[in-house]
Amino acid sequence: MNMSLSKILMLFLMLASFITSNAQRNALVAGPMLGHTDMRETNIWVATQQPGKVTIEYWRKGDEKNVKTAVGIVKDDAYKNTLINVYGLEPGLDYNYRIKVGDDKKHVSYPAKADSAYAFSTEPLWQYRNDPPPFKFALGSCAFINDSIYDRPGRPYGKSYQTFSSIVKSDPDFMLWLGDNIYLREVDFESKSGIIYRYMHSRSIPSLSNLLAYCPNYAIWDDHDFGPNDSNGSFVHKDNTLEAFTRFWGNPTYGGSATGKGITTNFAYEDAEFFMLDNRFNRTPESAVGVEPTILGQQQIDWLITALKSSKATFKFIAIGGQVLSTEAKFENYAVYPEERQLLLDLIEKNNIKGVVFLTGDRHCTELSALNLPNGNKVYDLTCSPLTSGAYDNTKENNTLRVEGTIVSEQNYGIIEIKGPQKERKLTITIYTSAGVLAWTRTLEF
C-alpha cells in the first residue's frame, strides 16, 4: 500500500514529537543538590518527573577526556528522587559534572548548555602534612517559602528570598541548615504526599536551587520540618517526616545503633567536627505529669558526650534546633528543660571538652551567647535565624549570657570562618542581612 509524502512527513513529526515529549516528561524538576562531600566521595540529589535512570558524568576539572559515570535509579514511588553516590575521587581536587536524565538514547542533559557544567571540590589531605586549610561555612534556619493556596490568610509570612543568593555570593565551602528548613502546613501533616509536596514546593525557588547546587548541604530539623508547631515525639506521623528528611537531604548518616531512630549524625571538616542532634524524635512535653521531661533523651546525650570526648577537633560544633545557652525560659529554649540543660553542660565541663560552640535556630532572631564554665572553659551558642521567615525582636528577653550587640531582628544568615596555623586557629563569626550587608562580626576566645 502506497503512502503519500504528506502522511509520511506527518508520521515522522508525530514520532519526533513523541520522543521529545517522552524525554521532557522525564526531565529534572529539582536539583541537583550537593550532599556530604569528603576526600573520596560526594553524593548528589536530584528529583525527576518520572521514574527511570539518572547518570552523573564527572571529571577532574580541565580533564574532560577522562569522564567517569555514576548511575542512580529514580524509583516508581511518591518521591521521584534519588541520591547518587559519586565514588573514586581524589583529595583536594576540583571536579565538574553533568546530569543525564533518561537512557543513553533518549535523555535530557543538565546544564542545558553543552559547554557548561556543575562543580564540586573534595576536601584536601592535610593531616600530618600541613596546617589545616582555612575554610568557611554558611548557616541559618527558618526558611518559609510562601504558598498562597495553603498559607494562612493575611500578609505572606515568607520574604527576602534574596538571602539564598547572598549566601552564594559569600562563597561558603558548605551550608549548614539549622532546622525549620521547610514549614509543613496543616494540609501536609497527615499524608506522605503532603510532606513530599512541601519539600518540592520549597525547592522550586530558583535562588534556593542555586545555593543547593553551589556547595555541599547538611541539615538538622526542628518542629516545622518534623511536624506541627512545637511538636514532640508523640507526633504519630514522625516516621513519615523522618523518611522524607532522609530522602531530601544528603547527610552522611541518620540515627542508627548509636542513637536509635532520628536524624542524629556527625561529620568532620578540616580541623572542625560537627555533631548534628535530633531535638524532636524523642522529645517529651516539659509539663507532662509522670513523664521525665527530655529534649534529647539519655541515649543521645550519652552518644554526644562520648563523641565529643573522642573528638580531636579544634572546634566542636553542636547543631540543635533550639537555643541551649539562653537563660530566658521561654518558648522552646533549653532553659524550659533546666535539669537536662544543666546535665548537658555539667558533662561537657566534667569531661573537659574544649572548643564547644552550639549552633542553634528556631527563634526568628540572631544572637550570640557565651558561658564561662566553672573549670575555666568557655562555651558559645550562636543562634542564627531567620533566613526567610518572619522576624522577631527578642531585645527585651532576659538572656543574661547574651553577648552585647549581637541581636539581629531581621532576615539574616551567618558565615563562620576558621583560619590560621594549627596551634593558633581563629574562629570568626560574621552575620549578614538578607541583602548581604554586614550586621556584626566577632572573633571568639576560648
Description:
By secondary structure, the protein is α+β, with helices and mostly antiparallel strands. The protein has 2 domains: 26-121, Immunoglobulins (Immunoglobulin-like); 135-443, Alkaline phosphatase D (PhoD) (Purple Acid Phosphatase, chain A, domain 2). Helices cover 20% and strands 28% of the residues. It has 8 helices and 20 strands. A 6-stranded mixed sheet has the order 11-10-9-18-19-20. It has a 6-stranded mixed sheet with strand order 12-13-14-15-17-16, covered by helices on one side. Helix 2 (162-169) runs parallel beside helix 4 and helix 3 packs parallel to helix 6. The model is unreliable at 1-24 (pLDDT under 50).
Q: Main traits of this protein?
A:
446 residues; alpha+beta; Immunoglobulin-like; Purple Acid Phosphatase, chain A, domain 2; 2 domains; 6-stranded mixed sheet; 8 helices; 20 strands; 20% helix; 28% strand; disordered N terminus
